[in-house]
Every structure is written in structure tokens, then in C-alpha cells.
Amino acid sequence: MNKIGRIIICLLLISAVIILGIYVWKVFDIEKSNPYSYVTIGDIPMPDGYERVEGEDPEFGQFLRSLPLKPKGAIIKYYWGVIADLQELNYAVVDLPLLSNAEQCADVCMRLRAEYLYNKGRFSDIHFLDVQGNTLSYNGGKSRDAFEKYLRKVYNVANTYSLCQEMKSRPLTEIQPGDVFVYPANSQRYGHAVMVADVAHNPETGSNAVVLVEGFMPARSIHVLRNWDDSHNSPWFILDETSDYQTFSLFQFNVTDLKCFQ
């Protein structure tokens, strides 16, 4: 073999090693849950050129950004402790234990809203509709046991339909932390809900980006959604405000599906 041939073979071998290294790096490191060991949702860096949106209720946004994350490599588990399917949707696991095997997508959104109000001592503001349109108000004060018992009751009688009924619509251009993308079930598809945990705005382009938190069915660990379309392995989703729908996780939401708590 001549010198040129040996050089070509060496270059091919080097290329193969580099490609293999990138593959191993992606599979065994970067694509793990919480790959950069962030401590809270708020520690996840915003996209370049973006500025955080505090929203009408900055304390609610701060509460959501302060949600703790489990360490790098944490996996989503079902309520009963078994490893869940669809791990690829998981960017990071929120370090918050589930209260019931009925705590699914809409329930997680109600749980996070209720946890915020409970932590602020705003007990009279904790109320949700059931599927019949009845208001379920919390009246257990500071008792954590009473609070969790109340939430488990809500989980059994509320869902995406009731959540849609009690929330009001918000334009996509005005999206804020604590908003929820939600639609009820119909004959064509299951209902689903994801909560907006953080929002950032790019003043030059006018676009908004969001970090989303999700629960799922069967009940499983609350988690930050992974954005597989982002080449930098970021969980931020850049919203396309010219489109009639947005796709997150396995679900497609209409722009009219953005809601906020009243």
C-alpha cells in the first residue's frame, strides 16, 4: 500500500472514531435526563438573545422556576415505582413525589397551581371545578394532610374538560409562566395538558420561547419536556406564532388551547 493509501485509511479511522465518540457522548451523556445537572428549572439557560418574562404574577413564575430537579440520569417512573415508557420525552425529572395514581396531566397542572397558593398561605384561592361544574374549595388551612387529601379528591373528579371550563383563554403572544396548553378529550383524541414553567422573549425577533412541565397517563414522574427539534439539546420550545397549532411532546395544540388561571 502506498503512502496516500495509508493516509486515506488513517483519515477514515480517525473519522470513524470521532463519529463513534459523538454517538457515545449523545447516547450515554447528553441525552440523559438533566444532562447538565441543573438544580432547578430556573437554572436552565435561556436561548441566546432571549429575556425572561415575569408575567402578571411574578411570584407564581418564580415558584415554577424554583421547582427542584432530580440529578442527572434520573428516570421517569410510574406512581407504583416501575420504570415508565416514553423516557425520550424526559429532559429532567421534577423532584416532587406524586400524591396519587390518578395524578395525570391536568392533575399536575392543578397540583402546581395549588402548591403555589398553599405555600403563599392563599388557602381561600385554592379551588377547582369538577366535571359537573361544581366548585371544590379547599378549607383545610395549613394542614398538609388536609391539603393532600383535598388534591386527591380533586384528581378523582376533575380532568382536562373541567380544567378547560375553569380557565380563560390567553393569546399566544401574551403567554406567561403558569399558563396551560390544554384541550379536552373528544372522539378523535385523548385530552392533554402541559404547564408553562418558564417564558422568555426575544426583543429583536419578537418570538417567545417556553419550558414545559408535563404529567402523563398512567400517572408518572412530573417532568420537563425535551425538545427533540433543538440541536443544542435544550428544553426550550420556540413558539411559531404564525401557525394555527403548536406541537409539544406527542401532542398537537391549537393556538386557542392556551389558557390561564383566573
Which terms would index this structure?
globular, 5 helices, nine-stranded antiparallel beta sheet, alpha+beta, two-stranded antiparallel sheet, 262 residues
What does this structure look like?
With 262 residues, this protein is an alpha+beta fold. It has one domain (31-260). It has five helices and 13 strands. It has helices at 3-30, 58-65, 105-119, 144-157, 160-166; strands at residues 51-52, 90-93, 127-129, 135-137, 168-169, 180-183, 192-201, 208-214, 223-225, 237-238, 245-248, 251-254, 258-260. Strands 1, 2, 5, 6, 7, 8, 9, 10 and 13 form a nine-stranded antiparallel sheet that branches. Helix 3 runs antiparallel to helix 4. It is globular. The termini are far apart. 36% of the residues are buried. Mean pLDDT is 88; it is low at 14-30.
Write the layout of secondary structure elements.
Elements: H1 3-30, E1 51-52, H2 58-65, E2 90-93, H3 105-119, E3 127-129, E4 135-137, H4 144-157, H5 160-166, E5 168-169, E6 180-183, E7 192-201, E8 208-214, E9 223-225, E10 237-238, E11 245-248, E12 251-254, E13 258-260
Antiparallel strand pairs: 1-7, 2-9, 3-4, 5-13, 6-7, 6-13, 7-8, 8-9, 8-10, 11-12
Helix pairs in contact: 3-4
Q: What is this entry, summarized?
A:
The chain has 262 residues and is α+β, with helices and mostly antiparallel strands. The chain is 27% helix and 19% strand. The chain is built from five helices and 13 strands.
